[in-house]
Amino acid sequence: MSQAPTDIAAYMRQLGERAVAAGRAMSRAETAKKNAALNAIAAGLLGQSEAIRAANAKDLEAGRAAGLDAAMLDRLELTPARIQAMADGVKEIVALPDPVGAITDMAYRPSGIQVGKMRVPLGVIGIIYESRPNVTVDAAALCLKSGNACILRGGSESIHSNQAIAAVVRAGLEQAGLPADAVLVVETTDRAAVGELITLEGYVDVIIPRGGKGLIERIAKDARIPVIKHLDGNCHVYVDDHADMDKAIAVAVNAKCHRYGVCNAMETLLVHRRIAPMLLPQLAEKYREKGVELRGCPQTCAIVEGCLAAGEEDWDTEYLAPILAVKVVQDLDEAMDHIHRHSSRHTESIVTEDYSRARRFLREVDSSSVMVNASTRFADGFEYGLGAEIGISTDKLHARGPVGLEGLTTQKFVVLGDGHIRS
Amino acid sequence: MSQAPTDIAAYMRQLGERAVAAGRAMSRAETAKKNAALNAIAAGLLGQSEAIRAANAKDLEAGRAAGLDAAMLDRLELTPARIQAMADGVKEIVALPDPVGAITDMAYRPSGIQVGKMRVPLGVIGIIYESRPNVTVDAAALCLKSGNACILRGGSESIHSNQAIAAVVRAGLEQAGLPADAVLVVETTDRAAVGELITLEGYVDVIIPRGGKGLIERIAKDARIPVIKHLDGNCHVYVDDHADMDKAIAVAVNAKCHRYGVCNAMETLLVHRRIAPMLLPQLAEKYREKGVELRGCPQTCAIVEGCLAAGEEDWDTEYLAPILAVKVVQDLDEAMDHIHRHSSRHTESIVTEDYSRARRFLREVDSSSVMVNASTRFADGFEYGLGAEIGISTDKLHARGPVGLEGLTTQKFVVLGDGHIRS
């Protein structure tokens, strides 16, 4: 395929046309057919695992030659266990209820018409991601089940793996009598393809980028199509003075230490001044055992021996590392003000036994997930029962928080009459 | 106020800061307080109608001096009846249920946490509109009831009217103990203010433009904030050969002739070839009586005497006038293909007594409203029971079709635990 920019534009437009045509067929596909395709894909991943690993070996070789570091090579590698996990993931999506076609709120209006809403696919979804090739099948399976077509643009370092996986996906679609073009993988590594994809108005209905903040911000800036964004996760836990100490310690340790490099890990701990002298020394001991570095406000530093002084920038930092900012606050209002000023609106949790404060926190904190007496680590599509997630949205419009099948659909109004006219 | 661009940027940012602060207070305001504010606003509009009309007279005078045409001057004028209608509109919003805070789908997960969704305001809504000053109070009332703050930028020709109305709105908010800054009217007519408003990231959560297609396209192109768009309404009625003739005539006449200049008027009529020879002559007679010009495909022209020949561009035109494009089709599939190719995805209706075809049309036509045996003119917030609408969205994401109070809100996840941690 030619890599010249003029051809890239034509190539992407042609992908767009094929995706729109396939999307129409997918939108009316019965659940049983979509599930048959998913089962065929799961079987194909295992049956074709040799071919997938051979393609993956090419990517790994090229990656080593290009000097990718060990962590990137690890993300790129498809072991038999990872191929099995991909197939298992597809099987899980078979088991999820099909959201498409559900009609809700159907009611008669005074005029005599009936009005309701029907859940329908978005149409064509563009997904832009970085190195992990498993995203190819995860994203394809979610789009397929929700009745959408998708155009996938993976990282150039995983191009062979992605194409091998796409071949399995497309064969599965055809086997079930669905159009192979419902899943299209961009077959050029030319970066111009991304620029074309995010401006394919009239063909692509939404763009979902998966990757670092830099990638997502660039895409959001240049896109002419709505983007479901996942920026950062600067999550807070506030321990109220009416907290149960055991719960506070359990939640604060789990939210920070369960995994460090994830968006739903706590990055700042806020502690009510009355409970700080009891709680912080105990917590500091736990964090010390785990190797977590503390950066505290002056009051924290006065209580916790050896605590580093936090700078203003610490309150805005998503560490994704064993580092935690700690601040002592006067009361719930100061905690919520701090969250309002510094949070990325991902996930915040209060630890308290006080009913009224819990109620206020839930209502007033403006984040995609708000919690009482639970670890921020629960902010996740599987934990929430969505079955799988294509990402976590930090946007407010359309989808907020973990995005599952329903986030890949929209609703249209359905009106039933009997020759009704407006007077 | 200075009109220099550098000051405009600072001025708009300051409006943004005030709106965010007011929005936080509005998001936690009780329904009774919001309703008290709305009642005070309705009373204020009537009580201050002299002052509003005096301000409006200034706009009318400036408009005449600037040579505005009669239609524009009419849209601009606030008669006592129109002020009464504005007050009545606000009273209707008092009667609507408050969507904020509703918790749905709350359920226990296997981990023991409870997960549900809470409906919450979007935050700050920027509304950009043209000449009608009544939009100022309609938009303010909807934003207020849904717990949002708003920044309103009306047309420069209605600046005095808008400011007088805003003064009433702000007084009503204060009377109810709510922040006046929940409704901010941009007080400069400098066009740079629009450019600033649509790029106020971090302050404004969504932009809703109300006006012509040109305005909306310009805003969508330059905005850095999500835009709820209402582009055009190229609506279709398809009369199937299994249609009831009386219903077909009633719906086709009403959809075209009830009002011409509205987005939910039919612009193209599609007729099954088997029913065309009976239906079209009768319909043509009705349209002739109403003064509607017909532009038909060759088959239509062969049936309807004196019908003009439609050009390819007619299928894509939103006439907003007593003109109708008419096309004879082979079957339902050709009708749906035509709609897929030419519709603006606003509203389409099928007239048929055939159960399976109605079912297919509802599922497969990808428009914000799909109807059976009903006039496209029903696509409207009041008719659908939303109570009022801030616009009709032709977008797919977030809000689709008429946008009422719920469209001005979003949902966040709520998690309740008892010291739960993730294992």
Automatic annotation (TrEMBL), chains A, B:
Gene Ontology terms describing biological process: L-proline biosynthetic process
Primary location: cytoplasm
Reactions mediated catalytically: L-glutamate 5-semialdehyde + phosphate + NADP(+) = L-glutamyl 5-phosphate + NADPH + H(+)
Localization terms from the record: Cytoplasm
Any Pfam family the entry gives: Aldedh
Cross-referenced PANTHER family: DELTA-1-PYRROLINE-5-CARBOXYLATE SYNTHASE (PTHR11063:SF8), GLUTAMATE SEMIALDEHYDE DEHYDROGENASE (PTHR11063)
Name of the molecule in the record: Gamma-glutamyl phosphate reductase
Organism field: Methylogaea oryzae
